[in-house]
Specification:
alpha+beta; 9 helices; globular; disordered N terminus
Amino acid sequence: MSTQQGFERRYQAPEREPIIEVDERLFLKSAARSFYVLEAFARSPRPLSLAEVAKGAKISKSAAQRVVQTLLVLGYLERSPTGTGVVPGRRILDRSFDYLRSNPLIERATPILTELRKTCGERVDLSLFDDVTILYAIRLQSKRETFYATLSGRRMPTFATAGGRAMLACLDDRHVDDIIRRSKLAPLTPKTLVDPALIRQRIEEARRDGYAYVQEEALMGEIVVAAAVVKERNMPAGAIHIAGSLADWSAEEFRKRFAPLAIEAARAMSG
């Protein structure tokens, strides 16, 4: 047991997992408020007023005013073109670039996904494992896409995605149960599985088959197959997704055609 236990608390950023232990003496609350303000925009793509920023960040309006002004000066927030509020600033993209170029998995994945995209003719993605959520790091488009499906940086629940289930299949049952228990089992579409028993059943199928699939659970009309990219001790680092339209494929045909390609690409990146 840590001798600092009395100084630690359970910390969870707004709408964010995992919960981690934090030493209060080292936790800089003023810095945290800046990130709370930036995270407030995750709930809405439109400009936010100062009152909305304060509410979303769960801080006082006076604190929000100081943080917003600081981030405006630094370029991490900008005034909206209409002057109705503030929006995330272009400077944030600099930090995204820093992360993408420094992650060796993303560097290794890029040529593999580019070739996979040429081979399959459908959208291919690389997601990263982040506990109860996955984060899309690379998204190579196909002939038709919804806007959000083309954007890197999107966060999705692990339990409801093909890549998430493929990565959960690499974990032991205790870890899987813990992640499902802490997940917000809210449906993304009318077909999203939210029954823990059914989710575990799909994870068992992924263990057996070497890949997972979802059909219209994240987006209506879409089917996705995914295979996990693993690191040492078979722990999941990410997943390769191949996504197609049910207007073009039957579920059986899509799985038969593309699951082996996803598995092969994931194996090429693992280790």
